[in-house]
Amino acid sequence: MDTPVIEIRDLHKAYGALEVLKGVSMTAPRGHVLSLIGSSGSGKSTLLRCANLLEDSQQGEILFEGEPITWKGTGLHRRPADRKQVMRIRTNLSMVFQQFNLWAHMTILENVMEAPVTVLGRPKKDVEEAARAYLDKVGIGDKCDVYPAQMSGGQQQRAAIARALCMEPKALLFDEPTSALDPELEQEVVKVIKALAEEGRTMIIVTHDMRMANDVSDHVVFLHQGRVEEEGAPADLFGAPKTERLQQFLSATV
Ligand code: ADP
Ligand code: MG
After folding, report:
1. Domain-by-domain residue ranges, the chain?
2. What's the rounded Cα separation, in Å, for the pair 249 and 208?
3. What values do phi and psi take at 86, rounded to 5?
4. pTM of the model as a whole
5. Ligand 1 binding residues, C-beta < 6 A
6. ipTM rounded to 2 decimals
7. Mean pLDDT, range 170-191, rounded to an integer
8. Cα 34 vs. chain centroid, distance in angstroms?
């Protein structure tokens, strides 16, 4: 079998005395969409942040394409010694955040081009061509010269997705990509995520949107207080939840 893009084994992470991840394991095979659900504070963002080396961890292992990348630290926010390695992992596991995080002083095209040009040192001309194509793909090809403040939240989030795609990552990590959006704008972003799933992109999506999780995922993981409480195919998890905690969670979120 193909080596998974991301594999997390028995990961433990604490902030001081607060144990946030208590032995989490999770696998994202190539071309699969994994959704991560759970109440606020269950450790979903922390797990994503560990995976792309924004956080260290204390025990367990994270593998990127079979290679251990685990950064075992002290919780003191020391960065791993090899910055090149960190950059490579961040590039390959591109993250999309709830709060788009676009540069306000740059046009949309400049936002999408920034990291591939300055971080990866790719030729400007090639990057511009790719950036325009990705902006087209997410349906805002006409917004290249506009500034973020002039766009709706849904358009800004789609620009953030184009920016992540322009890094040509091996996987996309989404942290509540639709949570900051009004319901009608949410659907624009869901549509883009669905299209990416249909293309066979490897993705891990933290979401509160159970309908999207049901529609796009190959596998759903329910995190409860830092542990995987239940996981499986979306039809099983949403159709016939086994644990009482998941049943409660689902009835509270619908
Ligand atoms: P979720 O994304 O599922 O809502 P988080 O991973 O953000 O959960 O947070 C899990 C727990 O870790 C929460 O109790 C949160 O307060 C705590 N936490 C998150 N980040 C930090 C941090 N940088 N320092 C201390 N505690 C944190
Ligand atoms: Mg979170």
Report:
1. 6-252
2. 11
3. -60, -45
4. 0.94
5. 15, 18, 20, 38, 40-46
6. 0.98
7. 94
8. 10
For 50, the token pair is 């560990």
H-run or E-run covering 215:
helix 210-216
**Nearest ligand, CA 40:** 1
Q: Is residue 184 pLDDT above 90, yes or no? A: no
Distance 38 CA to ligand 2 centre (A): 9
Residue of 12, 18, 54 best suited for mutating to test ligand 1, as the one with most atoms within 8 Å of CB: 18
Dist. CA 109 → ligand 1 center (Å): 33
CA distances from 107 to 95, 112, 135, 250 (A): 20, 9, 12, 40
Question: What is the best residue among 11, 12, 20 to mutate for testing ligand 1's pocket, by most ligand atoms within 8 Å of CB?
Answer: 20
Residue 176 has pLDDT above 70, yes or no: yes
pLDDT number for residue 87: 87
Residues whose CB falls within 8 Å of the CB of residue 237, separated by 6 or more in sequence, listed in order: 220, 222, 230, 231, 246
Say whether pLDDT at 53 is over 90.
Answer: no
Specify the DSSP class assigned to residue 148: G
Report how far residue 247's alpha carbon sits from residue 253's, in angstroms, rounded to the nearest whole number: 10
List strands edge to edge, sheet with 227-232.
93-96, 171-175, 203-206, 33-37, 219-224, 227-232
Beta bridge partners of 15: 18
CATH class assigned to 6-252: alpha beta
